[in-house]
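[Q] Does anyone have a clean structure-token version of this?
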Amino acid sequence: MLLNLLIDFILISVSLLATFYFKKGDIFFSAKEIEFISVFYFSWFVSTIISKKTKSFSDLDKHSLYKKFLISFFLMIGIIIISNQFFNFENVSRYIIGGSLFLGLFLESIWIFVTPHKKVEKEEKFKFYTASIYAFILDLLLITWIIFFEIVEKINVFEIHSEVNLLILSIYLIWFLSGLTFHRYQLEINSNYWKFIWKYLKAYFFLIFASAFLTFFLRVTPELEKSILFTIIIYSLWSFLVFTFYFFIKIPKRTDDTRLKFIKATELSDELFDERNIKSNGKYVLSNYKTPGMSIKNKLKEVYLKRFENLFDKIDDKIDLDTIDINRSVVIRSSDPYNVETLPDDYLDIFINLHELNDIRRLNAYLIDINKRLRNGGIFIGNFEPIKNRHKRFLQRYPFFIAKLFYSIDFVWKRVFPKIPVIQKIYFAFTKGRDRALSMAEGLGRLYYCGFEIIDIFEIGYEMVFIAVKVKEPSKDINPSYGPFFKMRRIGLNGKDIYVYKTRTMHPYSEYLQKFVFEMNSLDDGGKLKNDFRITTWGKVLRKLWLDEFPMFINFFKGEMKLVGVRPLSKHYFSLYPDDLKELRVKTKPGLVPPFYVDLPGTLEEIFESERKYLEKYFKSPLKTDMEYFVKSWYNILIKRARSG
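[A] Here you go.
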């Protein structure tokens, strides 16, 4: 990339100096010319960053590469025109300004032509798109109507100067070229508004910058220059509104009901079946019925997942599809819960939904319904877009700074608002739950909460695809953690459950994933789960400052915890302890300051020994032991900067 940046810098420098030399016969610059040169280099640098034109050429084909350079070219024009309002380049020859820009583009075109780039298959080289003649005629009438009323009617251009007529014809030509370049008349409607409208916005900026450059280059009168620019801006706004209106009246419903596909047979019999599930040769095996029907495998490969070969290969690699009856299988692409509610209970071998979970309004209720329809050990395959890929999608779809702006708005609207009790009602009233932001932890945690267990996860594009198995009934916990403050079920005195209050440092529903993360990553030093993706970025900061622990003082004042003592543990973590240590633990209350900060153990076994040592001392001399551990703990925390992770 740095080499490409240096080459491009040399090319535009050559074009700038050559233009000055051929026009003036020397390269001595006046004060105004130096100002122009400074703006020229500044515009080149900014346009290069935005267009990303100097990135690796091997990743792009020649057409895509040239398009980036063309975008950079018009960005330079726009920046120079805007800068002219502040610096006034009237004394700089228009041939120098125009010549340096066009010569630079010409040299860059030669560079693109002679540089190796990504090869394109023959059938891709002549790829045409279908344009709508109605959209073309509508837009032509719109720009003609605005040109007539804003220019021809207000200023009699036919009597002022004949060259102005050529200027208007040039505007029509630029308008036509912008439509071809950015595929403005390809009216393919999908559910993504920004993807649809982005090509129009690029075309409008192209038209505005190019028209401004023409008026600047031809030195038209200030009155005519303002009139033309005002006309183009008014046209762009009207065109934007027209095509936005078209989008919203033509956008398909997000439920994708027309693409609904059922693999199951219409006859639903009630024969008994064996519910044993085993794993063999790395594949999940769903035992067959006493009277097996036709396998789902061929139908899935040749029809329903024909367009998704990667998905089929992943599923086939993880599941023995020959054990799944096609008559007890459903494949849909829909977010409408009706398509699940109509299915019989405890019947299905496999349920596949190709529509992402981000669009489903009452997600827990939807997943619980799927759980009811699957038999024990039944398989649920679905997908969702995690927030890390959502951020990546914004960065790849828009220029960097615009992407950051859009993602910031998206973050507040779709991640913060749904978690605030009062505002979340407004959010769901407007969005109906569509396109919600789901973290990986929340998406998988909801599955565990609703009675599923993940046997495999993998990414395809921006989507996280999961293969889950029904292992139990949905959780009876009616208040899973979701807000900034929450309480966790932990084992307290005499083995009774207590609810420990904490500030959220993990994504919602993370508490249901403790076993999953442990089996995937095991434990790190200090007894914490290794590579725990459930912790948020701000959660790591809160943990370093112990701000997540402050709400536990509520448990202290309620008498459920004491100042110094062993950590309150979840049932899963508690199950990892040896039996003798379990018996010691439940004889006393857990504490706010654990013995970890005194001994600083590094492994799970060392944690066991540290807690056993503390408990044995505590039962002999409670007050003395707690005072000793309290002082030593804070000494290590403040002086040795000890942290628990």
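[Q] Thanks! Anything notable?
[A] The longest strand covers residues 374-384.
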